[in-house]
Amino acid sequence: MTFASTAVRTVYQAAFNSLERPLLFVQNLVGMRRVAWMFLLPNLVIFGAFTFLPIILNYFYATTGSDAILLSQRPYVGAENFRTLLACKDYLDPNTCQQDIFWRAIHNTAKFVVLQVGLMIVFSLVTALILNRDIVLRGFFRGVFFYPVLLSPVVVALIWKWVLQRYGLLNAGLEEAGLSSVNWLVDANWSFFWIVFVTIWAHMGFYVLILLAGLQAIPSDVYEAAEMDGASKWRVFYRITLPLLTPTMVVVLVLSLIRAVQAFDEIFVLTGGGPGTATTLILHYIYETGFAARPRLFGLAAAASILMAAVLMVLTLLQLAVTRSRAEG
Amino acid sequence: MRLTSLLLVTAVGALVAGGGAQASELRFACYQDGVECDTWGRLLKQFESENPGTTVKIDIVPYKSILESLPVQLAASQGPDLARVTDFGGLARYMLDITPYIKDASYWEDNYGPTLKWARVNGPDDKGIYNVMDQLTVTGPFVNKTLFEQANVQMPAKGATWDDWAKAATAVAKATKTPYPMAMDRSGHRFAGPAISYGAKYFDAKGNPVTVDDGFKAFADEFVKWNKDGTMAKEVWAGSGGSAYQDAAKEFINGSLVFYFSGSWQIARIGKDVGDAFDWVAAPEPCGPAACTGIPGGAGVVGFKSTKHAEEVAKVLDFMAQKDVQAKFMAATKNIPANKELQQAGVDYVNATNAEKAALKQFTNDLQGFSPIAFEFQGYKNNRAIMNSTVTRITQAIVGESTLDEALGRIDSDVKQAVAAAK
Question: How far is B13 from chain A (nearest CA, A)?
Fold first, then answer.
């Protein structure tokens, strides 16, 4: 043990010792059970003020009408906002819905979640498998894939906007190669493709890191045994790697699913939800309805956010149930 | 000795407390198209020297913040003391009536009468004074004259229709290989002028909004077609979602656009950024079958009821409204004055280039021929609801998400829903 570490240890010990007497005093004063509450109190206050209170307020906004922001000035309308959002002749055709843009946003979000999460997991897994092998410059490549995660979502979106705009980098390259340019962010299908691509590019590194940790936790003797038995690479992957990686993949699935449903910032800057409503997701609808459009329909926006929260809760419970059943099975 | 010290401390305390009560710092949330807030900053130094103890702290904010954040702050009684705004009708409920605090209300009525009405939304009995206009704006077109000359195409003259301009701009763009013949800011306010020119009435005889009629439909049809066939730069409207504002000034300044429908507030920016790269002019308002009109509008400074310094706020507004202050402000910012005396006397735009002076003159002249519907539209308190829905729904028709008829039907229902919610 070096002198420095001994000194640090001594200082820490002294600090802890100095806390002992006041803590014992408080414990004697309020009792053992209440001390626990005292420690929890700061966190409870912060959670209460910034999480639980907004949830409760959101419920009140969802059940009141008008464009007033103060609850005292908002008339109670019951479930009217929910009825307005859900008024639809055919849920598969947003044009038949009273709030057609809400339903377009729901459809877009569903499509986005399936595509983005599915592709994200596939690409993350493939990348993690490659980066787990003994390749040249492995550390460098791990850094490269993780780097976009460190960037602000607005920076990510602006970079890609410069690449994708009509006179951007991509079209300049295409024209240089003798190909015709494409109006990437004005065409509905291409815009949707690019929001999926950009969000995968921006977040994949995080999931690669988690999967990489999962892969490295698999004991090497299992692979050695499989090799001795002459198992093919595909069989090793399918029978050993994948099953042992499943708990990690479930974590990745839950995290990426929740994040995909909440996607907003990159898309807001990159496409603004357009063209038309082609890339308008549910959070964008809530923002537009509650804060951007005039008059501000806070009630409708709050009701939409409650519906979104309900869907997220169902998804999370489903994932937890799956995880639990696998752990027990 | 102890008594002397006590008296000294008490006296100093009283002075500090007294000074604290008198001194008032006013927060002024200001957005600028050019140098408006910087100019107010300079001019308000004079106000501060004439009114010791009152300081005005200018917070320069983006226009988006004025549109989106300010109303929320005001609703929560957390707004600034003053702000430079454009949505007079929408914010009227929060505005401070300065009539009790000013000496000469008749000066305001005589000089700002028509624009005072834009904030008087509480019926015919509302005679309050809420806003001092510091920028009277007029929507209208800017044209790249150099491109017309290079293409050897005759520029359409006064009285030319939107169709004439579309044909001419397309011919110029084709001849000069310019990417975009025409563009219009992504704004329901910009859209409204041509729509009225095509016969849109916007209101029935009782003043209730009737957004979609034959005139509105006729221009919407033309506009959607122009966006689809490339006459209009599709990126501007189709490149965004929701009701977000998007201008096309960059494209015009870069020389990528022949005809740009925006408004007089862009004069200083275009003048400064184009420099001598090419010649540009503000053209007369294009005509439709019913009129040749844009929409008047603009920005002004208002105080808010939530202020703790109502008297000082009124003093600032009264200072801003004075003719000599307005003359200095207009000259520096190259804006059209709302002050009647100043309009008649004319502003000496000393720092303006010839192109800028000509543009200011063109827009001021155009204003005289504007349709009365355009003024009514500007003064309507829920006009933002019409504008937002126009942008959102017409964009959907442009990108093919809905047919034009479906889009028009949605505009009608959106406006009805918004007006009901705003009651």
Answer: 37
Q: Which residues pair with B259 in a beta bridge?
A: B143, B182
Classify residue B16: in a domain, yes or no.
no
Q: Which fold has domain A85-328?
A: MetI-like fold (1.10.3720)
The CATH number of whichever domain residue B209 belongs to comes to: 3.40.190.10
Q: Quick check: helix, strand or coil at residue B217?
A: helix
Partner-chain contact B388 A272, CB within 8 Å:
no
For A165-207, how does the pLDDT look when each residue is reduced to its tens digit (9 = 90+)? 988 999 999 999 999 999 999 999 999 999 999 999 999 999 9
Residues of B with CB under 8 A from a CB of A: 68, 71-72, 75-76, 87, 90, 179, 234-235, 238-244, 382, 384-385, 388, 392, 395-396, 398-402, 406, 410, 418, 421-423
Read off the tokens for B117: 């009405």
- Mean pLDDT value of segment B187-216: 93
Task: Indicate whether B265 and B409 sit together in one domain.
Answer: yes
Measured CA distances, A150 to A147, A154, A251, B90, B380 (Å): 6, 12, 21, 41, 47
Number of domains in chain B: 2
Out of B354, B376, B399, a domain closes at B354
DSSP symbol at B101: G
> CA B324, B328, B333, B334 torsion: positive or negative?
positive
**Which pLDDT score is estimated for B158?**
94
Residue A329 — pLDDT band, cuts 50, 70, 90? Answer: low
Q: How far is CA B396 from the centre of its chain?
A: 25
* DSSP one-letter code for B423: -
Please give the pLDDT value at position A159.
96
CA distance B207 to B195: 18
Q: Given an 8 Å threshold on Cβ–Cβ distance, is B238 in contact with A294?
A: no
| Claim to verify: residue B228 and residue B158 sit in the same structural domain | yes
**B277 and B154 inside one domain:** yes
- The tens digit of pLDDT for each residue in A223-262 reads 999 989 998 999 999 999 999 998 899 889 988 998 999 8
Residues of chain B with pLDDT > 70: what percent? 95
> What is the domain range of residue B146?
137-296+362-422
- Domain co-membership, B252 together with B333: no
Name the 3-class secondary structure at B23: coil
- B224 plus B288 within the same structural domain: yes
What is the per-residue pLDDT across B277-294, written as a single tens digit (0 to 9) for each?
A: 999 999 999 999 999 999
What average pLDDT does chain B have?
91
Min Cα distance B163 → chain A (Å) is 25
* Same domain assignment for residues B168 and B286: yes
